[in-house]
Design a protein that fits this description.
about 10% strand; 4 strands; about 40% helix; about 120 residues; globular; alpha+beta; Glutaredoxin; four-stranded mixed β-sheet
Length: about 120
């Protein structure tokens, strides 16, 4: 099974991660996070697999996050509400997301990806 690479094409970090994967010959199933956003069900599986709290899945530097003034709002929201919010718009999700059989990586940190993929 190929890893699922969930990305936003204009994102510089996503492009860097895609180059990194290609340079290592790692074939992925690529999915645009805006046109094919993660569902609440998918996020419900991915969040525990990442080992991160749900709040770490938010793209805190994104325009939508700032426009909706989510910095303070998400503090009082339940896990279910946060997942529903993330699934409502792909631009709210930190990217890229790499879904592996045994874990999920959020954001691109070369050393973390290298360790996870053994490359």
């Amino acid at each position: 099974m190929r890893p699922l690479f969930v990305y936003y094409p204009p994102c510089g970090t996503c492009r860097k991660a895609a180059r990194w994967l290609a340079e290592r010959g790692i074939e992925v199933e690529a999915r645009n996070i805006v046109t094919d956003r993660p569902s609440a069900e998918e996020l419900g599986r991915w969040i525990p697999m990442s080992g991160l709290p749900v709040r770490k899945f938010f793209n805190t530097s994104g325009l939508l996050y700032k426009e909706l003034e989510l910095k303070d709002k998400i503090k009082g929201m339940s896990h279910k509400e946060l997942v529903a919010l993330l699934s409502a718009d792909g631009k709210l999700v930190k990217r890229p997301v790499l879904v592996l059989p045994d874990r999920v990586l959020v954001g691109f940190k070369e050393e973390v990806w290298q360790e996870a993929l053994g490359r």
